[in-house]
Amino acid sequence: MDFFDRLESTRTGSAEQAVLVHIDLPDGAGEDEREEFHHLVTSTGVTPVAEITGQRKRPDPALFIGRGKADEVAEAVRDTGAPVVLFNHELSPAQERSLEQVLRSRVLDRTGLILDIFAQRARTREGRLQVELAQLQHLATRLVRGWTHLERQRGGIGLRGPGETQLETDRRLIKGRIDKVQGRLNKVKKQRAQGRRARQRSETPLISLVGYTNAGKSTLFNRLTKAEVHVADQLFATLDPTLRRVRVPGLGPAILADTVGFIRQLPHQLVDAFSATLEETRDANLLVHITDASSPERADNIAAVEAVLEEIGANEVPVLHVFNKTDRAGREPRIDRDDQGLPACVWISALDGGGMDLLHQALAERMAHSWVNRWIQLPPEAGRLRSRLHDAGEVLDEDYGADGSMLLRVRINAAHFYNLLRGEGLSEDEITLASAPVAGDTTPSYNRNRSHNAG
Question: Which residues, in sequence order, are bridge partners of residue 210?
Answer without folding.
Answer: 289
